[in-house]
C-alpha cells in the first residue's frame, strides 16, 4: 500500500512513487492497529491536526513507560513464583481451604500478568507504527527539498504538491498515534506532603498551591498551624499523563485580600513511571528557601 496513488507525470517522479509504494497508507495504519479515537481524543480524527509531533519526547516517554510496565511485570511474576511454590507445599499438606485460597490468588495474578503483557505489546505496536510514520515523513521531507532545487516544471510542481500531501498525512498519523498512546499511560496519583521552609514558614501563614498538567488543574489551600503542622483542604489528586506537557507548580502566599507570588516551577513526569511511589521535592524559590513536597504513585 502507498501513502497515496497518484499518476506521476514524468520519469523524475518514479523514485518518489517507489518510495511511497513501500510505505503504509493512512487508513492501513489505523485499521491494522484497530485504533478508535477515545472520547478524550476525538479531536484527533481524520483531518484534524492538533499539534506538531515531537518524536524525541515521545521516545523518552515510551522508554520510561516500557521500563515501568516491565517493572510491574517482574514484580507480579515474582509474586506468582512465590505463590506457586506455596501452592505445591500446601497441596502436599492437604490443607484444602488454604489450598483453594492460594489457587484463587494465583489465577488472579496470572490474569493480571496477561493484561500487563498485552498492554506492553500494544504500546510497542503503537510506537513501532509511530516510528514508521516518522521515517516516512522524514523521507518525504528530504525528497521535497530535493525536488524544490530542481528546475520548475509541471512534473516537478505536481511531485512537490504530492510530497506536501504525504508529509501532511504522515504528520496527521503521528498525531493520531500520539493520542492513542496517551490512553495507555495510566494515572498519576499526586499526594500533597506539605511545604518545607524552615524560618520562612510561620504559624498563621496561608498558602495556595496550583498544580497544572495541560488542561488538568489542582488548586488547594493550606495553613501553618501553631505547632508547625500544616492543614490542607485537599490531599490527593489524580492526573492523566500527557506526552507533551510538564507539571507546572505555582505557589502563592495569601495575605488577607492580597496574594504574593512565591514561585513557579515546572517538573518533568518521565521519572514518575515506576512501581514505587516517587517522593518529589521541588524548590519553589530560586534560593530554595521554600520547597514543596509531593508524592507521586503511578
TrEMBL record:
It comes from the Eukaryota. Residues 14-298 form the FAM65 N-terminal domain. Belongs to the RIPOR family. This is RIPR3 protein. It comes from Drymodes brunneopygia. The lineage of its organism: Eukaryota, Metazoa, Chordata, Craniata, Vertebrata.
Amino acid at each position: 500500500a502507498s501513502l497515496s496513488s497518484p499518476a506521476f507525470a514524468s520519469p523524475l517522479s518514479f523514485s518518489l512513487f517507489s518510495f511511497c509504494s513501500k510505505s503504509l497508507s493512512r487508513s492501513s495504519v489505523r485499521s491494522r492497529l484497530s485504533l478508535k479515537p477515545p472520547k478524550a481524543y476525538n479531536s484527533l480524527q481524520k483531518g484534524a491536526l492538533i499539534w506538531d509531533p515531537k518524536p524525541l519526547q515521545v521516545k523518552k516517554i515510551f522508554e520510561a513507560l516500557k521500563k515501568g510496565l516491565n517493572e510491574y511485570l517482574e514484580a507480579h511474576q515474582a509474586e506468582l513464583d512465590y505463590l506457586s511454590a506455596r501452592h505445591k507445599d500446601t497441596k502436599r499438606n492437604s490443607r484444602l481451604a488454604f489450598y483453594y485460597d492460594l489457587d484463587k490468588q494465583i489465577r488472579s495474578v496470572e490474569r493480571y500478568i496477561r493484561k500487563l503483557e498485552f498492554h506492553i505489546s500494544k504500546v510497542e505496536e503503537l510506537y513501532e507504527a509511530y516510528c514508521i510514520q516518522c521515517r516516512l515523513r522524514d523521507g518525504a521531507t528530504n525528497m521535497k527539498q530535493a525536488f524544490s532545487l530542481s528546475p520548475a516544471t509541471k512534473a516537478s510542481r505536481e511531485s512537490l504538491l504530492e510530497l506536501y500531501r504525504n508529509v501532511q498525512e504522515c504528520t496527521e498519523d503521528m498525531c493520531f498515534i500520539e493520542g492513542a498512546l496517551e490512553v495507555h499511560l495510566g494515572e498519576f496519583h499526586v499526594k500533597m506532603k506539605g511545604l518545607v521552609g524552615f524560618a520562612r514558614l510561620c504559624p498563621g501563614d496561608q498558602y495556595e498551591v496550583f498544580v497544572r498538567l495541560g488542561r488538568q488543574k489542582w488548586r488547594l489551600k493550606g495553613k501553618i498551624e501553631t505547632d508547625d503542622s500544616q492543614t490542607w483542604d485537599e490531599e490527593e489528586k489524580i492526573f492523566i499523563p500527557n506526552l507533551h506537557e510538564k507539571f507546572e507548580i505555582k505557589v502563592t502566599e495569601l495575605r488577607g485580600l492580597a496574594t504574593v507570588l512565591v514561585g513557579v516551577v515546572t517538573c518533568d513526569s518521565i521519572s514518575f513511571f515506576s512501581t514505587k511511589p516517587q517522593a518529589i521535592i521541588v524548590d519553589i524559590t530560586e534560593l530554595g528557601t521554600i520547597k514543596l513536597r509531593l508524592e507521586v504513585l503511578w
